[in-house]
Specification:
The protein is an alpha/beta fold. 39% of the residues lie in helices and 24% in strands. The strands form two sheets. The protein has a nine-stranded mixed β-sheet with strand order 3-2-1-4-5-6-10-8-11, sandwiched between helices. It has a two-stranded parallel ribbon with strand order 7-9.
C-alpha cells in the first residue's frame, strides 16, 4: 500500500514513515513543505513530495496521486496562534480530505485529539485548537471516505509499549507518539477500524486487540 503521510516531518509523522518503511506491506510517501526536508527523506530512501497545506487543493491532490491511503498528522504546533491553527489543523485538514477525494484515494486516517468530539472537554487554554480538530473530524466523517479518526491523549516521547486503551470516550491520559504511529499502521491493515473514531491513551491491551474491540 502506498501511504501519503501529511505531516511527515512532525514527531508522529517520522515514526509513521519509519514503521511503514520497515514493513514489507507498505511504501511511505512523505509530504513536506521544503526542498531541504524532501532531500532529507530521500537520503533515507523515502519517497517524498512537495506540497503546502496553505496551498491549493490541487497541489495536495497532485501529491496524493498514486497513493492508496492518506494519513493526516500535521499540526500548526504549540508555538503558533489561533490563526495558524485554523489554517493548518482545520482548513489544511479539510483540503487534504478534498484532495484525497479528487485523487481517488478512499482510505484516510486522521490524527485528532482526545475529547474534541465533546465541546465541554475542549481545552480551556486553547479552545480554537479543539474546535479546529472537532470540525475537521466532522468534515472527514461526512466525506464518504473510508475514514479512521484516532484521538490520542497527551503526547509524550517515551518509547512505545505496544499497549493502549482505546474507546469512543476516555478520561485524559498520556500516550507515547510511537504507540500512536503503531496504531495508525495497525489501522491501515485492519478494515475493522473503517468508520471508527476513538480516544486512545496508554493501557494494558495490545494495540491490535484494542482496535479489534472497538
Amino acid at each position: 500500500m502506498n501511504v501519503l503521510i501529511i505531516g511527515a516531518n512532525g514527531q508522529i509523522g517520522r515514526h509513521i514513515v519509519r514503521k511503514l518503511q520497515e514493513s514489507d506491506k507498505h511504501n511511505a510517501i512523505a509530504m513536506v513543505r521544503s526542498d531541504e526536508q524532501k532531500a532529507a527523506f530521500e537520503e533515507q530512501g523515502v519517497q517524498a513530495v512537495l506540497a503546502d497545506l496553505e496551498g491549493s487543493i490541487d497541489e495536495i491532490a497532485r501529491a496524493a496521486e498514486g497513493a492508496d491511503a492518506v494519513v493526516f498528522t500535521a499540526g500548526s504546533g504549540g508555538h503558533t496562534g489561533a490563526d495558524k491553527t485554523m489554517m493548518i489543523d482545520l482548513d489544511g485538514a479539510i483540503k487534504s480530505v478534498e484532495a484525497a477525494k479528487q485523487s481517488g484515494v478512499r482510505r484516510f486516517i486522521m490524527v485528532s485529539a482526545i475529547g474534541v468530539h465533546h465541546r465541554e472537554l475542549w481545552m480551556e487554554s486553547a479552545p480554537y485548537y479543539s474546535a479546529a480538530k472537532h470540525y475537521a473530524d466532522i468534515w472527514l466523517q461526512q466525506s464518504g471516505l473510508d475514514y479512521t479518526i484516532v484521538r490520542p491523549g497527551g503526547l509524550i516521547n517515551e518509547p512505545g509499549t505496544g499497549k493502549v486503551t482505546a474507546a469512543v470516550d476516555l478520561d485524559r491520559g498520556e500516550i507515547p507518539r510511537e504507540d500512536v504511529a503503531e496504531a495508525i499502521l495497525a489501522s491501515l491493515e485492519n478494515p475493522h477500524t473503517i468508520g471508527k473514531a476513538f480516544d486512545m491513551i496508554s493501557g494494558e491491551t495490545p494495540i491490535l486487540e484494542a482496535l479489534n474491540a472497538l
